Amino acid sequence: MDIVKIVEIIWSVSAFGLTAMVLLHSPKGDGIGGIGGQAQLFASTKSAESNLNRITWGLFLIFITLTIVLSAGWLTNGAVPAVVPPVVAPSTGF
Known about the structure:
Layout: H1 3-24, H2 46-72
């Protein structure tokens, strides 16, 4: 396995992890529960929310950084992919 494949695997794992972390966040709006004050009854603790935010931001930074590195091609050691020369038809002499 070369370094590009390893970075692509880390990038994919961070994408799935970031998606899971975003889905785990509690909604910020109170919704209908805010009318009777019931929104605070089921709210998560501050430390859990804080840790979830830190993990989400960390995965976001990893994902964005690896996206830039992979799309810029900085891990290919300057190797340019081979370009196939165009096929030229032989001249018929007319």
